[in-house]
Amino acid sequence: MQQRDFLYQGKAKTIYRSDVPGTLIVRFRDDITAFDGEKKDVLTMKGRYNAEVSAFFFRMLEENGIRTHFLGMIDPDTMAVKELAMIPIEVIVRNVAAGSIVRRYPFTEGAPLDPPVIVIDYKDDTRHDPMLNDDLILALGLATREELDRIKAMALTINEILRAHLAERGITLVDFKLEFGRGDAEICLGDEISMDSMRLWDAETGQSMDKDVYRFDKGDVVAEYSRVAQRIIT
Ligand SMILES: Nc1ncnc2c1ncn2[C@@H]1O[C@H](COP(=O)(O)OP(=O)(O)OP(=O)(O)O)[C@@H](O)[C@H]1O
Ligand SMILES: [Mg+2]
User: Fold this and answer.
1) Which CATH class is domain 3-82?
2) Which sign, positive or negative, has the C-alpha torsion 154, 160, 165, 166?
């Protein structure tokens, strides 16, 4: 597969067309940002650890009947994906209270959320990704009722699959963010599942194993991503 026109550069990934119609090439860059892009750095190897973990989970989800955009790896930091018409929402599944939900609502950090809580934000940096609800999603025409129900059901199934895999490795899946798009009439999981998009805690020590290490200067980010990636994929 050959890389063609540059399509889009986000905060952490760059998307290119390929010579195969309907297939895109996604390069996970070493750029890392936090707090709406206020904090940013370049961390060598970070892109490939995220790509590696994303590919691993996409494969695992496909084996479990979840449709994803993943087609295969081209390079350690680059994957081929099915082009989707992305739905501009961030679907966040929370198993444990942490981060923004604790700042905004009277939850105690670390409190289990059972059943898991799904929060959907509007993907719009200029508006600071405001939280949506079902009525807003329908009124804005972002998704149909059927699509929204499907997306939520997929998100919960994905949560169970990821959570079980991580728990076996002594890792608590605190929360994570998913993005979905429309494939050939079917809703597909897109984007990434990585240390940038999941909040992971060591089940024994409670230590952060994700982008919080970067956000809150908790240690060597790349060393942590490398360790976590090894724990996840082996
Ligand atoms: N299969 C796909 N087809 C089309 N676009 C996709 C696909 N998967 C992901 N994307 C889009 O590609 C972009 C990935 O870039 P990236 O994640 O770096 O940036 P961003 O989402 O704009 O910003 P950020 O996630 O940092 O807020 C996102 O806009 C995402 O919605
Ligand atoms: Mg993104």
Assistant:
1) alpha beta
2) positive
Query: Does 103 score more than 90 pLDDT?
Result: yes
Residue whose C-alpha is closest to residue 82's, from 3, 6, 20: 20
pLDDT tier, 36 (very low <50, low <70, confident <90, very high otherwise) = confident
Torsion-angle region of 110 (φ positive above 0: left; ψ -120 to 50: alpha; else: beta):
left
Which letter does DSSP use for residue 131 in this model? B
Ligand nearest to the CA of 88: 1
85-220 has CATH 3.30.470.20 classification: yes
Outline which parts of the chain fall under CATH 3.30.200.20: 3-82
The response to whether residue 183 sits with its C-beta less than 6 Å from ligand 1 reads no
Question: Which pLDDT score, from 0 to 100, does residue 185 have?
Answer: 81
**What stretch(es) of the chain map to CATH 3.30.470.20?**
85-220
Please name which ligand lies nearest the alpha carbon of 37.
Answer: 1
CA-to-CA distance for 178 and 129, rounded, in angstroms? 14
